[in-house]
Each structure stands twice: as structure tokens, then as C-alpha cells.
Amino acid sequence: MKNNLIVDINCDMGEGTGYDEAIMPYITSASIACGYHAGDEKTIRETILLAKKNNVHAGAHPSFLDKENFGRTEKPISAAEIYDLVQDQIILFKRIALDADYEVHHVKPHGALYNMAARDRELAKAVSQAVKDVDGSLILYGLSSSFLISEAKAMGLKVWNEVFADRTYGDDGSLTSRSQSNALIEDVHKAVAHVKEMVFEKIITTISGLKIPVVVETICIHGDGKNAVGIAKAVFNTLIK
């Protein structure tokens, strides 16, 4: 059934939410925490095996080393430091995946790392170079039309432009800051309408009402969202041919 999906659906997993097993049937890619913002080697292995059982792609979800803030707090950091932390997490993830006899499919930065690299060319280069130097065959998931996409493409990496079913957007195509009350979309019907507009009309309606063009190759559902399971199921059913 998953082969009939119009577009990839991915979910951030291995973060201790308790929803992973319920969400797996409704996604095609799992971006798995690498121990820096959540999880550890045990949870990485367990989540990879859960993805394998459900025929779901497994990818590394590297983050800042910041479990206290779930990797969602921005911090001053150099491109060299980002290169090292991303590379270290991918190497760890690949080792555990090899032990589980499952192929690594992609890399998707998490939280503050993702947002900073999306808007900062040098940080995007550092992330992309780290992915390429570990395994140039991996797909890099990045915010649609951001520096993460353009810099990875320039290095010859395969990229998937990502949009979010459960997040709102600013006029510049960036995600609304979680510090704002309108950052999250928790209503299932609103999330489905948002996804339909992005996938079928190729536009996003921003929080100000502006309609901007968007490229969609994968859709993210946050595994820690209040209605994550319901949103995943509804989006999945919407996108089945």
C-alpha cells in the first residue's frame, strides 16, 4: 500500500514519545534521533528494527548535543563544530544500522541545527560536507528551497525538499518559531488541508495569508506532536493514490 503514496511521509522518531509503533504504518521514512537531543544506542537500534519490520526507510536525525532543550535551542557554533557533530552521529547511526542489517537511507538535521543550516550557507555546507564524507549516497532532507538543499545539491548529494504537515510558515518560507503561539498545527483537519495545498497546489499559505510557491518531495510529521498519530494516519490516507 505504501508504494501507492504520492510523496514520501517522514516522521522524527526514537525520541521517547511512545508513539513510534502506532505511527510506523502511516509513514515511509523514519528520521531517528542519534542520542544527542534524545535517545541512545539502544533506542537507535530498536527504532531501526521497528522501521525494518514496517518496511520504512531509516535515516539519521543528528542534532546539537542538548537533551535538556531537546535540541531546539539555537546556539553559537562554528561550521567546523557542526561538521564534526553531524559526522559523528552519522557514523554511529551507520554502525548500528549495519549491526541490524538495515540500510541507511537519509540524513535529516534536527531542530535548531536544521533551522540554522537552512538559513546559513556556511552551516549548510558543513552539514552537507559531513554527509558526503561519510556516505555520498545518502539523501539529505532539508527545508524546501533552503540553503540545506542548494548547498547539498552543489556538492552532488541527492536531496529531498521537505515540508511540514504540522507547522506554519513565515513569508520567507521559514518555519514559524516555536516561541509563537501559532507555530504548531495540532488539528487533524487543518493539517490535512495544509498538506493538500502544498502537495496538489504547490503553494503554502503563510501566517500572514501570503501564498508562496513550494517544492515538495517529503512531508514531515513530528513524532512528539500532540495529535501525531491522527495526523499521520489522515495525511497517509489523503496521499494514497
Describe it.
The chain is α/β, with parallel strands linked by helices and 241 residues long. The protein has one domain (2-239): Alpha-Beta Barrel (TIM Barrel). It contains eight helices and nine strands. The strands form two sheets. A seven-stranded parallel barrel has the order 1-2-3-4-5-6-9, surrounded by five helices. The protein has a two-stranded antiparallel ribbon with strand order 7-8. Helix 3 (79-99) packs parallel to helix 5, helix 5 (121-134) packs across helix 6 and helix 7 (188-201) packs parallel to helix 8. The model has no long low-confidence stretch (mean pLDDT 96).
CATH-wise, what's the superfamily?
Glycoside hydrolase/deacetylase
CATH hierarchy: architecture: Alpha-Beta Barrel
User: Biggest sheet, open or closed, and with what strands and sense?
Assistant: 7 strands, parallel, barrel
- The total beta strand count reads 9
Number of helices: 8
Quick take:
The chain is of the alpha/beta class and 241 residues long.
List the helices and strands and how they pair.
Layout: E1 8-13, H1 20-23, E2 29-33, H2 41-53, E3 57-61, H3 79-99, E4 104-107, H4 111-119, H5 121-134, E5 139-143, H6 147-154, E6 158-164, H7 188-201, E7 203-205, E8 211-213, E9 218-222, H8 228-239
Parallel strand pairs: 1-2, 1-9, 2-3, 3-4, 4-5, 5-6, 6-9
Antiparallel strand pairs: 7-8
Helix pairs in contact: 2-3, 3-5, 4-5, 5-6, 7-8
Write out key terms for the chains shown.
single chain; 8 helices; alpha/beta; 241 residues; TIM Barrel; 7-stranded parallel β-barrel
